[in-house]
Amino acid sequence: MTALPTATTHRSAARPDVLTAARGARWITASVMIVGVVNYGFALLLTRLLDVASYAVYAAGAGLVLSAVTVARVTIPWVLAQALARARSDTERGDAGRFAIITGTAGGIVAAGVVAGVAAGFAGPATTTVLALSTLCFYVTSVPAGRLQGEERMRTLSLLGVAEVVLKTVVGVTLVVVCGWGATGAVAGFGVGLLPLLLWWPALPRGSGRLWRSASVNRGLWRRALGIARVQGLVALMAAIDVVLVILLPTDRSAAASYQASVTLSRVPLFVASAVSIAFFPALSRRRADASLSAGAVRMYVIAALPLAVVVATAPSSVLTAVFPTGYGMMGVLTALTAVTGFAIGAINLVVTFSQAVDDYACVRRQVVGLLGYILALLAGWRIDGVHGMAVGGAVGSVGALLLLVHQRVRRRGTAFLSRMPVVEPLLLAGVLVLVHPYPSVWLIAAMIIGVRGVERFVRRPEAPGPAADGPLPGAAPTTSPSTAQDQSGTLAMTHRPTQHTPVPTSPAQDRAGRLLAEAVWRGQPRPADEAALRHALSLARDNQVEGRLARSYPRQLADVVSEVDTANALFRRNLREVTDRLRDAGIPTVLIKAGLATHHVCGDFDLVVPDGRWTSARDVLESWCVGRSTYWLERSTKVLLDPRHGPSVHLHSAVSWFGVPVMSTSRLFDRATAGGGAWLVPRPADELRIWLAHGLFQNLSIDLSELFALRDLLLLDEIREEARREAAREGWLLGYEQALVVVAGAMRRLDRGAPVSLPVPYPAATSLRVGAEHALHLLRNGHPGVATREAALRVPLVVAKQRRRWAR
């Protein structure tokens, strides 16, 4: 097989990491959304349970706790996660675990003291003590959080996040309502909610004092920890400084509370950015300069955060007044500004994550400059126009700080991380909300639709906007999802979970036949084989439509098969010419699809697509050529099988469809097709690539060896994969396309290295069900409810039937 260029190989190997990170980001973001809803419900409830002064103290304390969360959760755990992602030995992993425990505990003590010192300026002794203890809990529990992040166990981490906020809310409300502890009780829930994380505390073997000392003085880990602490500390300070300033400066308490409540609404993008960063950070740390990963992270952030920011920024005053008490009357003029600030700070958090992943902390200088500019803008705004001016200054200062960091990123790494960032649709949605802003009822409906649309796009699209070169290809190193597990001694030992599906069990004879077939056909290295072994391999080769390739590897032993295939090929070429000549003479062009198999097996039929509205005419033209005609009841309106006297039959299609469900536009297929060396046309390479994948996804639910050969050449070129990816998105099965590439690449890698492969390669049932749902939803949205219903109704029975047949073999 032709070797890929180095850059392509690098991007190819990264693709499974992109998908793993994207799935993790979805889990974390879903958790963040749930946590956000519960947090906002808790905050709204507290506006009713606490007076304005007590709520202001709670909000300021919560701001400090948020700072502690940000620093604790992205310093110690991220160092541990990065070390686990990069570690090559148990010693390195053990050192990382010990280092996290030492620094988590010591850092928590120091941070608790700092928080107590700041909180003493606006809170009483009891509240100050609770805030300090909560901060210590955040740092201590950052160790198990880092372990889960490094193992890429994002689902567990997300569920623990939900459990944390639910427990925090229950405890906080109970202490406020039942015990009457006011702001102190409200903030006490922060520390209690963290306790479940301790169940995932890493179990390390008992080591000598020297092992603990070596971990504590490890310069590399300290350098990373200090670098991440500086970077994330500055982000945390930027996120909290305005909330603290507004209560420390001599301002009206009602105005200060309005500002704090609007900031609470507007900080959702920061939580989204943190979720995306957590999920992508391990993969970014392994593939330090991979632009496709950073581009995927940016895309996920924009898709999720921008619609939320727009909704908050355009919220009508009457809607806010209905939600918040009268003491928060200024929110209507503040949310538009604080929404800009929240989105900018979230983007800053994401951009600096890219620098942390490559151990590049030069961004700190620009962060410091941006933070100083932000603080000066806040103070200048407050001096000019009080709280409203402070909101204006915050928006201007945060956007300026973001531009400084983006400019540095572009200078160092180029603009690849911004590739195909969705901009047009969010701007249009923002325009719609601005237009309906004067009409609260209409705005509410539009905001709900935009929110649903944002969630749908976020869940549906694989967040890897890099070119399809990111798709895994043969020649790339096998990629696995790292995880850690405790070995028999209880140490943090790295294991790996394969990203591919679990293969169907095979018998020893099948396994030997598969190995012989792979060696001879795929790798081109036939090894000596006796008659019995060859016959087993030939049976498997026929199932995979490569008996011609196998026979030519053993021309003497399989001479009869060589002759059989050659005869079939001659009949195929004759019938193809006859059929296409007749249709051309009748003024009906044709596109030959799935023809790459014909020269390597005994071809029983071939597939031709005719233009829209010409299917019946084409069938009539060939009436005198064929001696038999049949249709399958599920496809009687889209496909007919015409049998000649000799040689392969022709499948005449009205569209590229399976079971009557069209997957591609026929007119677009013809517009893009090229001459095929006769009276027929052939699909554009990007269309051919999608046809092969769609055939497996929508009909066979598997892909055989002959199809892997056809795909191997198509996948070598970046531009073909990228174009196919765009077209799949247009056709409504992008997620299925991406997941099919993962399965194909995994099979090719195993074949390349001689590992056992179940042939034909089955698609996982989950993938088959998901692509059906994805495509049915696309058809429904585009005004085809009947076809969408057909797709949805057939998918589950098809998957069940294929699974039963597969396991019965």
Notes on the protein architecture:
With 809 residues, this protein is mainly α. It is built from 28 helices and 13 strands. The chain has a 5-stranded mixed beta sheet, with helices on both faces. A hairpin with a 5-residue loop joins strand 1 and strand 2 (492-498). Helix 1 packs parallel to helix 5 and helix 1 packs antiparallel against helix 10. The protein is elongated. The two termini are 31 Å apart. The model is unreliable at 1-15 and 461-506 (pLDDT under 50).
Beta-strand fraction estimate? 5-15%
How many angstroms does the end-to-end distance come to?
31 Å
Number of strands: 13
Instruction: Name the average pLDDT.
Output: 78
What share of residues is helical?
55-70%
The coarse silhouette is elongated
Count of helical regions: 28
How do the strands of the widest beta sheet line up side by side? 3-4-7-6-5
Quaternary form: single chain
